[in-house]
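Ops channel
N.P.: pipeline sanity check, posting one input/output pair.
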């Protein structure tokens, strides 16, 4: 895993973000508030240490896209429990035909990855920001690692947001994946990347 600070504050409140594959900080640009914001991504491995979180009085955790399953695996291995846990546009079954993305599609995305295919992916995801820079070989390794790691145990999400125009992790697959927890699910009329400039972290953590 890699991590970077998107914001640092003195208010002892942390928003811990497990981002999606290959998009880096781009989906979250323009979100406001949140105190200190620490972004984690690159799920080739999940045992890289994060900064000490014990100094924060309150930790909210938002997991996006493939970050949902990766966060759940990480929580199971570390036994860390945030004060609030939210999933956005993702499931616990990243490489699954019925509850995520079909494994052959994930493999094809990795094996056929190029500048042109990555641009197409970003646009299908609804990313309005500039296309992020990408280490293609590392991105391929990450996708294969996600496939091999498989489904994650459910840590008990407090809120699940399902994007209703998702062309990356199909909306119906997300609905199937979260069918057993309807009380925490909310739909949002948006593409895979649903965040909009001017929105607050608090809106997504509600």
């Amino acid at each position: 895993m890699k991590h970077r600070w998107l914001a640092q504050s003195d208010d002892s409140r942390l928003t811990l973000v497990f981002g999606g594959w290959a998009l880096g900080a781009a989906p979250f640009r323009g979100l406001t508030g949140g105190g200190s914001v620490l972004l984690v991504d690159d799920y080739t491995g999940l045992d890289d240490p994060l900064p000490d979180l014990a100094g924060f009085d309150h930790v909210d955790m938002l997991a996006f896209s493939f970050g949902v399953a990766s966060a759940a695996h990480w929580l199971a291995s570390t036994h860390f429990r945030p004060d609030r846990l939210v999933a956005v546009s993702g499931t616990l079954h990243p490489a699954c035909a019925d509850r995520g993305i079909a494994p052959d599609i994930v493999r094809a995305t990795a094996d056929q990855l190029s500048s042109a295919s990555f641009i197409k992916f970003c646009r299908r995801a609804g990313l309005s920001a500039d296309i992020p820079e990408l280490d293609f070989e590392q991105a391929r390794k990450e996708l294969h690692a996600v496939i091999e790691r498989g489904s994650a145990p459910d840590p008990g999400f407090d809120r699940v947001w399902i994007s209703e125009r998702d062309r990356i992790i199909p909306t119906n697959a997300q609905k199937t994946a979260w069918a057993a927890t309807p009380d925490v699910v909310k739909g949002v009329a948006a593409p895979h990347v649903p965040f909009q400039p001017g929105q607050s972290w608090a809106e997504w953590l509600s």
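N.P.: looks fine end to end. Helices lie at 67-78, 103-111, 115-125, 136-149, 171-177, 201-204.
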